[in-house]
Amino acid sequence: MTQPATVALTGVDTHAHIFRQDLQLAGDRRYSPAYDATIEQYLGHLDHCGLSHGVLVQPSFLGTDNSHMVSVLRRFPQRLRGTAVVAPEVSNDELDELAESGVVGIRLNLIGQPLEDYRSPPWRALFARIAERGWSVEIQRGMEDLDTILPQILAADVPVVIDHFGLPSGEIDPVNSRHRALLSLLSSEDIWVKLSATYRSRSNHAQALASIDRLRDAYGHSERLLWGSDWPHTRFESQTDYAAQFALMQTLLPNVEERRQVMIANPARLFKIDLTR
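and the corresponding structure tokens:
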């Protein structure tokens, strides 16, 4: 698939995964795919919805072997960026290679994992190297204890991206002290939230709208909200598809100017996508 030298930025999907069944899977995985999710399929979804760019997120079941994602990023440097999974002891050469391919962040998938002390020397050293490169740190973790780890990571002066609304189990509820603690950080800290995968939070439409309202109120703006399809919706494939998630985004963000902010300006700034293209 040949790509033009430049791609006009019309919209960014900030959360999708690609993989093949024949790739080496991580030994501690919680999920094993029974199908392939190819870059050709993904770009087809972007094209169908009129979206120019996508951010690939290394799936947890591939562990720290980012080679498949990197090979795809190198094929489509105009359209794609990446978020990798690395160990704290990853070498600078490896980080530089990831950066050269189009990686602009790392992900901590903490679902079902014991929380570590992210102030410890190995993590502090990693976050410092991430900060030097201008990358972000993405977190997948339930909202009930996000507020305990965010200050540890933010202390390294890196942007933090929270996956899937923060997985609030329904909706973000300011009456809940843990939710309120997270909301209190948003106006003053470099925290971004992905409006994605409501099905992972078991959120209905009204709850998702309420969560967005509370995020807007906490931020005082929409300048650090992002949208992601979560394609191919692992473990929820029978419940939704790309078109449904794109349509849902349009109903959750009915204001055209806000939608442009969330879909274009915000991800371009965070993920280093050239707005002039």
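(Above: one complete record from the training split.) Residues 205-219 form the longest helix (15 residues).
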